[in-house]
Amino acid sequence: MKPEILGGAEKPASRSFIPLAALCPLLLLAAILLGVADLPVGEVVDVLLGGGSENAQLIIGTIRIPRILTGILAGIHFAVAGALLQTVTRNPLADPTVMGISQGATLAITVFLFFAVYGVNADANTLYALPVAWLPLVGALGGLVAGALIYGLAVSRGLSALRMTLCGIAIGALLHALAMGIIVGWGSARFEIIMQWLAGSLYARGWEHVVFLLPFTIAGLLVLPFLHRSLALLRFEEDVSRSFGLNYRLNFTLVLVVACGLAASAVGVVGPLIFVGLVVPHLAKVLAGRHFAAVLPLTALLGATLVMGADLAGRLLGGAEEIPIGVVTAFAGAPFLLFLLRRYR
Known about the structure:
By secondary structure, the protein is mainly α. It has 15 helices and two strands. It has one domain: ABC transporter involved in vitamin B12 uptake, BtuC, CATH 1.10.3470.
């Protein structure tokens, strides 16, 4: 890897945090103030202070704020998971798809929506639809099972970063093909839901999604400081890591568990936002310079900022229809990804 990709010239890492720390509150304020429903600034302030009209309370407290918080948490999850996976696999293009997390979640949600959405109502002896609110849990479980399957296959033949990547690509492609086959072959009245989820969306995300994501966020971020030394050594070949006394398999597994938990929970809630986990860690490395300790905090901050900004842009540019955040992040991330590919030549 070229030295400049790791950070370039020496500079204090704090210089990168200052503009981001200023940008996040500004974006948060803009996301609360702006939307399809045009509310006066004074009324928004009244709601934030505990007052305001019933309509303003509904728009701000029930729709916008939980949606924004869901986006912030999901952005942190995707970005940090991408950084962890790129570190342990030593693959600069790794993201949650490498462990089959996105594909496993896609298949699980597709099966749930198309085949398992009905149960028997014992009282009326009729069919009823299972709640769509179960989707985050179903998607997260699907992603975790896929990650565990790929890890098991890789370990059974001797754990290595390359084998993990190859198993992830192969099994992920199979799971994605199965999901697409179900969607195309059978179709469903819920086709619109699955396509919206696949595009990556914060539409109709509420407080229940914040509550679902928050435990994963807290647990994942609390354990990261204890994995700092492991991550610093896992960047190198296995023999080098072991020469410094690192229990390679144990630490490799712990990092993967954290990455899979963060990614699977986020995918289950908002869908597969590929470019967040792929691009944000590289941008964080550029901003952090040679200060490796600053990479993960910057990654989390950038992930939250990118998703929050993408959601705001999608709401403002798309109007009532709104543009899914997955589309916006792809447009924002693709040019930077092409730039990185040129640097890696």
